[in-house]
Amino acid sequence: MLKIEILEMSRPFSAVTYLISSNGEYAVIDPTTPYNPEYCDAADVKYILLTHCHFDHIFDVQSWVDATGAEVIISEHEVDALKDPYRNCYLFYNRTQDGYFGEATGIKEGDILPLGDTELRYMECPGHTLGSGSYLCEQFAFVGDTIFKGGAQGRVDLPTGSQAMINDSIAKLAGLPDNTIVYPGHGEFTTIKQYKLDRGI
Ligand SMILES: [Zn+2]
Question: 75 C-alpha to center of ligand 1: Å?
């Protein structure tokens, strides 16, 4: 059984940071607040999961790596983009840092990540960026900037964005069970049923 916690926001623009756990093992999704031992024991953090490479989703990856030594995971299409201020968009917004320069593991469609007594499945959802993806677990989907509450979608005008690709990714997510709870990279949660109603699909 997956437990989900939303961590405090600590920066402007920052994505929602989800701390998920199962049976004492933890994963943080899009860490944009520094690691704090009050969240969980550092040794229990197994993964640092990224939905895509954008700066506002990776602000505090280094803090979590330093504290926990956990594996950083992102689409195989965006491992290099973490270090590329054009693709991660630090170039456009903020030059106080340029990216995450440590090790990261590439993930692809259908890859499984065991966590405690459950598992996550990775779904490629390109469109907002080429390497955007969702982490699916039980009745939950962590979708980054592909879809948002209210029938909205991620912008496609940034490097590697594509409306044609995001259309396919939205259709793919819409194929998940209606009761799937969708946790986006910004804003509040919705469900697949509600998203389809709001978007008129
Ligand atoms: Zn983004």
Answer: 14
